[in-house]
Amino acid sequence: MSHQTLHEQLQQASQQIQDAQEVARQAQGSNQQLLSQADQLLKQAEQDLEHARNQVGAEATENAQFQQAYEQLHDTRQQIQEAQQNNNDVL
User: Which residue has the higher pLDDT, 30 or 36?
Assistant: First the structure.
């Protein structure tokens, strides 16, 4: 298993967050399965961020790209939770 650089790990996490955002946008108001898929993408991104933090330490959390990815992760998770709640209210 090759060791990815911090930059590569953060790029991967950011891409997964962007993918989750797109899937969540597609799912809003209608599709619980897509919201679940978006949630899974976020979990993968969160694992990547945790792995980067564990591997690199404080340097990772001080990295602007890491901080931005973590904020996007949080915002997207909130968006998905709101969409899921809206879907549940409709049902």
Answer: 36
Backbone angles phi, psi at 57, to 5 degrees: 85, -145
- What average pLDDT does the segment 49-75 reach? 90
Cβ atoms of 32 and 40 within 8 Å: the answer is: no
Contacts by 71-74, CB closer than 8 A, 24 or more apart? 72/14, 72/17, 72/18, 72/21, 73/13, 73/17, 73/42, 73/45, 73/46, 73/49
**Reported pTM:** 0.76
Q: How far apart are CA 24 and CA 42, in angstroms?
A: 11
